[in-house]
Structures are given as C-alpha cells and as structure tokens.
Amino acid sequence: MKFYIKTFGCQMNVHDSRRIEEILTRAGHQLTADSKDAELALVNSCTIREKPWHKAISETGRLRKRKLKGQNEDLIVGLVGCVAQQEGENVFELLSHVDFVVSPDNYTHLPQIIEDIQRERKHVSVTGFTEGRPEDFLSIQSVSPYEVSAFVTIMKGCQERCRYCIVPTVRGPERHRAPEHIFEEIHHLVSLGVKEITLLGQKVNAYQVGDVTFASLLARIDQIDGLERLRFTSPHPRHMTPDVTSAFGQLRTLCESIHLPVQAGSNVTLKRMGRRYTREEYLDVVSRLRKASPKISISTDLIVGFPGETEADFKETLSLIREVGFTAAFSFKFSPRPFTQAQKMDDDVSEAEKSSRLARIHELVNAQESAFRAGLRNTVMEVLVEGKGRMPKQLSGRTRNYQIVNFVSPETIEQAAGKLVNVKITQVNPNSLEGELV
Domain 256-374 is in which class? Predict the structure, then answer.
C-alpha cells in the first residue's frame, strides 16, 4: 500500500514522521510524495496554537473530500500527532470519513490498525501514554542518500505546566530514555554517514537517568568518533545549569548556537505564565553562555498578548530582545488552548493590539538578525555540506551557528555531502549567505 504523510509542527513531529515512515515501510508499505497516488494518507498534527490545529483539521478534511467525491473511495485517512491525542474519538464527529486517530506514543500499532481497517472499515482510536519503555523511543534505522544531519529523541513529555501550554496534555509526563540506547542510536547513525546530531525533547536539558545528567550525556556523545556536530532543542531556561552552559566552550562538537525560549521579558508576565524563572535569571543564563562561547547565536520563542500583559510589560519584552541580541525568534499571538489554565483567564488584550505588538517584535528581531548576518560578511566559516544550492554548480550547508550558506564547488553533492569546508562569506541575502570556497 502506498502511503503519504503531511507533517505540521515542531522538530519532534518531523522526527515522528520519519519513525512512522520506517514502521510502515518495514510492514511492507511504500512511501509516496504525492497524496494523489496514496492509498493511505496520514496527517501528523500540531496543536500548540489554534492556527496549526485548524491547519491539521483542514488538511484532514481536504483528504476526506477525495473520498466523498469518489476520486478514491478506498483511501484510508488517519490523523496522528498531538491533535489526535487532544481530540481522540471527537475527530470522528468533526470528520466522519476519517478512519483512525493515533497519538504519538502508539505509532507501533499502525501496521495492525491499517490491517484491521482494510479487513473491516471502522473507526479506530488509539491514544494515551506509555511508560517510556525502550521500544517506545523508536530509533531511526536508515537515512536517505547524502543525509548528514539527524534527530535523536532522548526524552518525551513535560511536567512544567506553563499556564498557556498544552504539551503536557498531548505529550504526557516526562519519560527519559536510557543513555545506552541513545549512544547506540547515535553510533548507528554515524556509521551510516550522519555527521550532525540534534537531541530532541520537550524539555531536553532536564534529562537525567541515574547519575547521567544532561551535561554528562553531552560530554559522552562528544567523544563519539565520526560525529562532527551536536545540537539540542528545546531547552528550558530553568535547567540551563552551569555545567550545561560551560559545555559550549568545552565540547568539540557542541555548536555555537542555541534556541532558548523566553516567551516574555516582564517578570509579571512570566509569573502569570507559570514559567518559574525571572528575567534576571534568564539574563544570567545568557551571560554564562556568552562567557563560555562569545560568538554563540541565540534564538528564542515569544508570546505577545498573554492575559494581563500591559504596554509596559510588552516594552520589557522589547528591551530584553535588545539586551540579549536574539538573532531569530518564533513569535506568536496568544491563543487559549484547551486543558490549560490560561483558557480560564480573561483574554483581555485585543486582537488589534496583539497584531501591533507582534509586528513590533518582528521589526526589531529582523533588524537584529540583519545586523548579525551583515557582520559575517568577509569572514571564513566552517560549513557542513548538506545539499544542492540555489543555483547551478552550487552546494549548500550550514555553519556551526546555523546559518545557511550557498557556494560554488567543483564537486557534486554525491562527492561532497557530509564534508566540512571553509567558505568565505561574500554576500548576505535575506534568508541565506553566499560565499567562496577557501
């Protein structure tokens, strides 16, 4: 059976889709990039905000219409991911021609679910959380040709209970993977040609199993032969301990780039959000990171218009952006999510004011990003070759601080994939850099 996956959301969902691909391929099914060719279509959904929830439901409905219009009456449609966990069997009331919903902890059941539906068309809902058994952290067993970067999940779930966040509801409590299984997967990926690993977890730096802390885990991964680069996402500021921040100046593979969500710059707003750190504590983490790695690039997440946020509170967020010097930010207007404490709060910031504040953040962050990137002109940077560039004879890759670089090379991607090359930056574009091989 040919299957198609449409993925929404974070890196965890991207990684989960890869897991689903392997599970279904091992069961004898075949991946297709065109939904029109598919006999089985899955939507891997995100519900962190209202907009991606709507996108997932809309995409699932679009696939459903193909069945209703007779274009493919036998098409099996499944909703997986966080919306599946949130809605469960309610999905069948929203979209009656969806065949199944499966939450992230239950993807190993997909082959049997599909077989059951082929035998007898019926609605199937499999949701809930597992206990973090080794088989629940399915590892990637194969990579695509010239794939040099891969994700590795080290923990799942979150117990922070930030008042706006639905993640604990849809991803469950924290479950930490055994370190030996993490090392085994990374060794396997490196043997397949992977050069860069990104560790994944909803609160990745809270990892601890026995006496193996997150910092000691990083140190042991750093010693793996053949691994060139190491990253992690998404950390929580509360768990950026001194041994983690100092690792940026000590470990060979740990890249000079971090995505460190802050959400707001006002202590009043942070407290209302339930973030459990202050502006001053966040800035202390940033100070320690910059001391350990002076050239580190820092990106973040920001929410505008959280209930009770005043103009004065918002201006503190703007001042924090300037003080940290974020080089990128994912910024969003607050939208209440089900099963969260914030859903019960008075959403007292108008939509117009939210839009205005979001625009002001975008303007400031874009200016800082442009200034940061302009400062890279005429510097020589190490680039990990990942793929073809935008123009003929160009290759493309990323620097250690996560900038995309396109450059002309005498080698093909088949020859150069996974190589580390030095490139002198000659041009700064809106979304990438261009340079010349040194």
Answer: alpha beta
How many Å apart are CA 111 and CA 374, to the nearest integer? 50
Is residue 11 over pLDDT 80?
yes
Beta bridge partners of 176: 155
Among 240, 229, 290, 295, smallest CA distance to 262 is for: 240
Angle between helices 214-222 and 179-191 (to 10 degrees): 30
SS3 assignment, position 66: helix
Confidence of residue 136 (pLDDT cuts 50, 70, 90): low
Tens of pLDDT along 364-394?
999 999 999 999 999 999 999 999 998 999 9
The per-residue pLDDT for range 228-259, each reduced to its tens digit, is: 999 999 999 999 999 999 999 999 999 999 99
Q: How far apart are CA 271 and CA 359, in angstroms?
A: 24
Which of 180, 134, 173 shows the shortest CA–CA distance to 156? 173
At residue 67, the pLDDT reads 74
CATH architecture of the domain covering 380-437: Beta Barrel (2.40)
- Cβ(202)–Cβ(156) below 8 Å: yes
Return the top range by mean pLDDT from 30-39, 55-64, 399-408: 399-408
8 Å CB contact between 233 and 12: no
* Through-space distance between the first and last CA atoms of the chain, rounded to whole angstroms: 48
Q: Do domains 133-254 and 256-374 have the same CATH topology?
A: yes
Task: Specify the CATH number for 133-254; select among 3.30.750.210, 3.40.50.720, 3.30.365.10, 3.10.150.10.
Answer: 3.30.750.210
d(CA 67, CA 244): 51
- CA dihedral in degrees (354, 357, 362, 364; nearest 10)? -170
Q: Taking the domains of the chain in order of start, what are their residue ranges?
A: 2-126, 133-254, 256-374, 380-437
**Cα dihedral: 86, 168, 256, 139 (round 10):** -70
Q: What is the mean pLDDT of residues 179-203?
A: 96
Q: Which CATH architecture has domain 2-126?
A: 3-Layer(aba) Sandwich (3.40)
